[in-house]
Write a structure and sequence with these properties.
By secondary structure, the protein is an alpha/beta fold. The chain contains 14 helices and 7 strands. The protein folds into 2 domains: 214 residues, P-loop containing nucleotide triphosphate hydrolases (Rossmann fold), CATH 3.40.50.300; 52 residues, no CATH class. The chain has a 5-stranded parallel β-sheet with strand order 2-3-1-4-5, sandwiched between helices. A two-stranded antiparallel ribbon has the order 6-7. Helix 2 links the parallel strand 2 and strand 3.
Length: 332
């Protein structure tokens, strides 16, 4: 990927007239960023590219990200700006990359490209956030430990390169504690953008008062907030029922080894493409993945105790009593 220390310097005379984003949904994952993206993209005064998660400015995290089925990640500033060529002159332009809040470098790159950009972050209660993130990483084959307590306990060893799952493409994502440094993450943006350009949403509000929260975002972006808003849940959390079956499905569908190729060739020879797709979806939904079961309360309590200090600091930082809202006031 090519991104200079001064992104605007990489633009030629013609490219300086290219549209750059007016706003960024910076994260976190599993906090409603996909749902917000899908609701905003329907607004006629907003343009967002079909490629959610361009990840262009998270230069410290991109190296191990896989290419997406939705399209390749942009490698140069020219490629990145090409995502927005379809925007109308009167539209607000934005993008959503949930790793920008986690990244230590994204805020600086964004500020250099567009110091007037508006920033939207979404935060979630730490225990429910980490549990949902852990389930997502299992589903994406980044994590292999199905037990959340074990996965969290391995963080320091994984930081040293040990116990990394064989199929994991993003071992950085296994550093769970780095995701919950909320105040540090917000401060990276508050240090570069004035307060009126940074909006911090709380996941609970977004779920409970979905329409009202989206209308707040529309006013923040200075577009028509009377446009119809339809509640949407995207990227729901699922539970991995069987690691072995998931491995088998993955090997047959995307594997590249000789056994996988042989199995895929046999299946393709006897099964129409549409039927294969439907069968794969049914297998995933009904055999491999299942509904989320209730979390183990002792693990959730351990996480809350560990991150109570962060919740207290965030409450003070945002001048909002999240300690009581998230139930941390009774935790010693």
């Amino acid at each position: 990927m090519t991104l200079s220390a001064e992104p605007n310097a990489a633009l030629g005379a013609g490219e300086r007239r290219a549209r750059v984003p007016d706003f960024f949904i910076v994260g976190h994952a599993k906090c409603g960023t996909t749902a917000l993206y899908e609701m905003l993209i329907r607004h006629p005064q907003i343009f967002m590219p079909e490629l959610k998660e361009p990840l262009f400015f998270a230069t410290d995290l991109r190296a191990r990200f896989q290419r997406r089925a939705a399209g390749p990640l942009p490698d140069t500033l020219e490629d990145y700006l090409a995502l927005f060529v379809g925007a109308g002159p009167q539209q607000r332009v934005g993008e959503a990359s949930s790793s920008y809040l986690w990244s230590r470098e994204a805020a600086g790159h964004i500020a250099r490209l567009e110091p007037q950009a508006r920033i939207i972050a979404i935060l979630r209660e730490p225990a429910s956030f980490l549990r949902s993130l852990h389930l997502q990483l299992l589903q994406n084959h980044i994590e292999s430990k199905k037990d959340l307590r074990q996965a969290l306990a391995l963080e320091e060893q994984r930081r040293q390169g040990k116990h990394i799952p064989r199929r994991s493409t993003r071992p950085q994502a296994l550093m769970y504690s780095e995701r919950v440094r909320y105040v540090e993450q917000l401060e990276r943006y508050r240090a570069l953008f004035p307060p009126e350009q940074v909006m911090v949403l709380i996941y609970d509000d977004f779920r409970r008062e979905n329409e009202a929260t989206v209308r707040r975002v529309l006013r923040f972006l200075e577009v028509d907030d009377s446009f119809p808003v339809h509640a949407r849940e995207a990227n729901p959390t699922v539970r991995l029922r069987s690691q072995q079956l998931d491995d088998l499905v993955n090997a047959v569908s995307v594997g590249r080894g000789p056994v996988s190729r042989a199995v895929k060739a046999s299946v393709k020879a006897i099964t129409p493409r549409q039927l294969r797709s439907e069968a794969l979806k049914m297998t995933l939904n009904h055999v491999v993945y299942g509904g989320v079961t209730a979390p183990e309360e002792s693990v959730m309590l351990e996480i809350r105790r560990r991150y109570k200090g962060e919740v207290v600091a965030l409450s003070e930082y945002l001048d909002r009593d999240l300690v009581a809202q998230w139930g941390y006031d009774d935790i010693g």
